[in-house]
From TrEMBL:
It comes from Chara braunii. This is Reverse transcriptase domain-containing protein. Residues 356-383 form a coiled coil. GO terms for biological process: DNA integration. Residues 538-548 have a biased composition (Polar residues). Pfam families: RT_RNaseH_2, RVT_1. SUPFAM superfamilies: Chromo domain-like, DNA/RNA polymerases, Ribonuclease H-like. The lineage of its organism: Eukaryota, Viridiplantae, Streptophyta, Charophyceae, Charales.
Length: 555
């Protein structure tokens, strides 16, 4: 690709990603023409390297052998020096920052901040230190390199010279997040404990926009936690970690439930019946907004007071009166009069025996109407309901909507149900449901509790009702399946050799034939083992089990 073309880097990156998609984040990283292959052992590295070079040859990409380095324990990659234990900035980049002259214009500031910002993950509180320099990057601010900017410039240099060595994240080690917040920025450090020491994995800081500037210190700390959790969600989601803060906001917000008497009950995902009252109110508000807002939908906030007034002055079937009447004790006429001609509240009239008696009658009437509505809704909902047939130990299907799939997999073409998996127990106080704990595979990062509406009973594939029906494959998070072992191989005349394989977590009787090219590309270790056995003409042995993949198009 020639230099200078618009969007040339993005186009080239997309082409490389397409060619090596099934290898990315498994044993390869690619940035434009920089390819990094990583492996756990030397033998595995040789197979990975051969697979990458074969894919380059198939794509007709040429590689310069003089620029390649193989089987290195330590190397430089994208401005970092990477070792098996840690990551550090390159020494020549740090030296360039150390001898950087004092900026004289906005362009110089942007150049310096571009290099310093690239290594901000090594600097604790980067946004706070760089705030005076960051303001000078704006073309709307006159360039005045004052004492604050000079101190920020020198502080960034010192911080880079004293930058710690970052450890490589290990999911097996204890993890901690330390956060801090101020009026103009937040900062955090992701650490892991190895022995008695806590080693930093990454530092993060962010300048808080004026719209998010908060006066409450607890809200600042909570905002810092939320932003850091979003940034490190690939490290923290689904794992236990320690949160260290100097303001203790979590205790404050959890104490609000105790003080107000609120009981938090977890609800199952994608099951709106759990909080039907709120969802029904939202539906009514959306329906009313749909008839009032402009076509550009930019005035919906201004219409909310109208929606609130119309909602509160309409008769609700559940209580038999309007919310305003119930709130004001049935004084329908005074509601609108008070809105037009406000007057001082008459405490004596509102608290008189007649008013109290009338309000109690209205409240009793509303309760009776609510009980009648509940009986009516209960009868309507149970008209077609049957007892739940699912019990602990049974095999069930789980709706495919409950799983997050990769972007390259079309949900429309996937099966509607995944499984079957055994039921561990019933969730909650009811022994027969309606929610159950399902023993799903460990690689599916989803909460194992599902409502019975998301489950279906399983009929064995080998039953008399469905003779010869093939069992369903288990789902995967990346649209691929793992080859478990090779049973036998075959070759017809000049056609490529084919291999009969089984897949992990699938029915052992469910075997499929795949070509040697696809097996070599997706399961290089199993393919190499089979070839050695075949060339040696020895007895066929099961191939070693390893994590390998076969693209859906090759099944």
């Amino acid at each position: 690709m020639p230099f200078g073309l618009t969007n040339a880097p993005a186009t080239f990156q997309a082409a490389m990603t397409t060619e090596f998609r099934h290898m990315l984040d498994r044993f390869i990283l690619i940035y434009l023409d920089d390819i990094l292959v990583y492996s756990r052992s030397l033998d595995e590295h040789v197979e990975h390297r051969r697979t990458v070079l074969e894919r380059l040859r198939q794509a007709k990409y040429k590689a310069n052998r003089d620029k390649y380095e193989f089987a290195w324990q330590e190397l430089e990659y994208l401005g970092h020096y990477v070792t098996p234990q840690d990551i550090r900035p390159l020494a020549d980049k740090i030296e360039a920052l150390r001898v950087w002259p004092e900026p004289t214009n906005t362009t110089d500031v942007r150049s310096f901040m571009g290099l310093a910002g690239y290594y901000q993950r090594f600097i604790t509180g980067y946004s706070r230190i760089a705030a005076p320099m960051t303001r000078l990057e704006s073309p709307k601010v006159p360039f005045v390199f004052d004492d604050d900017a000079r101190r920020s410039f020198q502080a960034l240099k010192t911080a880079m010279l004293m930058a710690p060595v970052l450890s490589i994240y290990d999911p097996t080690l204890p993890t901690g997040v330390t956060t801090d917040a101020s009026g103009y920025g937040i900062g955090a450090v992701l650490e892991q404990r190895d022995g008695d020491d806590w080693n930093p994995v990454e530092c993060f800081s962010h300048k808080v926009p004026p719209i998010n500037s908060l006066d409450d210190a607890r809200k600042k700390e909570l905002l810092a936690f939320v932003m850091n959790h979003k940034r490190w969600r690939h490290f923290l989601l689904g794992r236990r970690f320690t949160w260290v803060t100097d303001n203790n906001p979590l205790t404050y917000y959890k104490a609000q439930d105790t003080e107000s008497g609120t009981k938090m009950k977890p609800s199952s995902a994608r099951h709106p019946q759990t909080d039907g009252q709120t969802d029904r109110a939202h539906q009514t508000a959306q329906m009313m907004l749909r008839t009032l807002i402009c076509p550009d939908q930019k005035d919906w906030v201004d219409r909310l007071p109208d929606i609130e007034f119309a909602y509160n002055t309409s008769v609700h079937p559940a209580i038999g009166v309007t919310p305003f009447e119930l709130h004001h004790g049935g004084r329908k006429g005074r509601i609108f009069t008070d809105l037009l001609l406000p007057r001082p509240a008459d405490i004596d009239a509102a608290c008189s025996p007649a008013s109290v008696r009338k309000y109690r009658e209205l409240l009793a009437q509303a309760r009776a109407n609510m009980q009648k509505a509940q009986v009516r809704m209960h009868r309507q909902a149970n008209r077609r309901r049957v007892p739940c047939p699912i019990r602990a130990g049974a095999l069930v299907w789980v709706s495919a909507k409950e799983f997050a799939l990769e972007q390259d997999v079309s949900r429309k073409l996937l099966p509607k149900w995944f499984g079957p998996w055994p039921v561990t127990s019933a969730a909650g106080d009811e022994p027969n449901g309606p929610s159950f704990v399902i023993n799903i595979p460990a690689h599916l990062t989803v909460h194992p509790v599902f409502h019975s509406s998301k489950l279906a009973t399983y009929t064995p594939a080998k039953s008399d009702d469905f003779p010869g029906r093939r069992s369903q494959d288990p789902p995967s998070m990346d649209g691929h399946q793992e080859v478990d072992r090779v049973i036998t191989d075959r070759k017809y005349s000049s056609k490529p050799r084919q291999y009969n394989v089984t897949f992990r977590a699938c029915d052992p009787d469910d075997t499929r034939w795949v070509s040697g090219t696809n097996l070599k590309a997706s399961a290089p270790l199993i393919y190499a083992h089979c070839e050695r056995q075949r060339l040696a003409q020895g007895p066929s042995q099961p191939a070693p089990t390893t994590r390998t993949v076969v693209p859906p198009s090759d099944r």
